[in-house]
Design a protein that fits this description.
Layout: E1 2-3, E2 9-15, E3 18-27, E4 34-38, E5 44-45, E6 49-55, E7 62-68, E8 81-84, H1 92-98, H2 105-119, H3 123-142, H4 151-157, H5 166-172, H6 180-185, H7 193-227
Antiparallel strand pairs: 1-8, 2-3, 3-4, 5-6, 6-7, 7-8
Helix pairs in contact: 2-3, 3-4
Bound molecules: zinc ion.
Amino acid sequence: MRRINPGSVNSYIRYGNLKIPKSIQSECPGCRSTTEFMLNANYQSSKNGLVTESSCPVCKKSAVFIIMTKDVLDEQGEHADTYIYDTQASRHLINQIESLPNIPKDLIRAYRSAINVHQSRENPATAVMSKRVIESILKHFLKEKSKGQPLSQQLEILPNHVDLARPIQSLSHLLVTDGSLHRMLELETEMDYETTSLLMDLLESLIEYLFVLPGKIEVTHNKIAKKFQ
Ligand SMILES: [Zn+2]
């Protein structure tokens, strides 16, 4: 199950007092394309929610959506929380990183093993594989400098060896005044659907990089610190 971000709901319809999604932009659990699902209005309803389906425009496989009509918690109290049935959701990151060009193969292998042993609750093996993942990340960036150094020291100097500013700075030329994208944002020229989709990807990545990831690291750090105090 994967929660549908309300920002990914393209349109709603009324269902009693609620607004429920009519079309949703989401990654297809079958083919992994990001596409628009038009939800079938033929709902199966229960006390807590509705179940419906939609077929993927790309692979034609049917995806299942669960709309929670009970305990609606958003501010206006009218938008129902919606989920897509996606058995691969928890393994999502590993699927994403495998397609990236610059990630070391031994890191992917170690991370995959860590996920597997954690899922089968092999705690000592999870500890071993997690250490290997951390070492592999550090070695990738620090190269020779990682040799013989404690992990804490390596993490301390890691930011000197990774250009954390580059992904942000590389965007600046895209938004240059009078550039194609800037003119589209100013509505001087029209933007097609493909470009708007890329733009949405860009917004998501920016927010993740600047807010979500630092926030997640801090929350996890605090939980671990609290556990050992
Ligand atoms: Zn599909």
